[in-house]
Amino acid sequence: MPELVTTLADRPELEAAMWAMPDTWPVFMGHDEIAAALFHHVPSTFPHLCLVATDGDEVVARAFAAPFALHAERRGTLPTGGWDRALTWAFRDHREGTKPDTVTALEIAVRPDHLGAGMSQHMLGALRTAAAAAGFDELVAPVRPNGKHAEPHTPMAEYIARTRDDGLPVDPWLRTHVRAGATIDSVAPRSMVIAGSLREWREWTGLPFDESGEVTVPEALVPVQCQVEHDYAVYVEPNVWVRHRLSV
Asked: What CATH number has the domain spanning 4-191+238-245?
């Protein structure tokens, strides 16, 4: 376990190293337009909710979160737009001075050589602690189930309904959240939308993208929709909203 987990508010000098840390995200996941516009502003805007784990002088894990007003007028329920919508709400609320009432987790990433040692669970616990320390009584997360990519044609609702004999979710990352105290709320069917030309998708995946229809892409949770005659393909990723009640 690392020597220290701290917020960027306390260690702003670690931001560059945090971004430079290797991770295991597939290349295509870096091309969501909402993320391109807003995600890099999260640490400077909400540093008290962004965490880094260090082992000596090296960053080995990071976690991002942002506050938003879930219970504002015309909201009230976790959005079907998932990750993208929560991030846009967070920055809109910040810009307009709307008081937030909820924190959404945005990412937990672990350096590849530190995977399998419980770091993800540790960072999730640290996010819960940071959100509670900031005065919030709920942390939500649009979870990307880490076993779903093996079943891209299985509907997300069917996938998350599967439980083990002990009642916990079959999916390991959902199981980690539930063990930490979360409840599963709903599916966010369009949590991230990644569109690109066929040339771009070939570069991102190494696949030919030469036939219209569904394309199974490694690490994608559902098939990518390809339109050869119109020279584009679109990936619409479903996530799963979970809710963590916190003690403040």
From this structure: 3.40.630.30
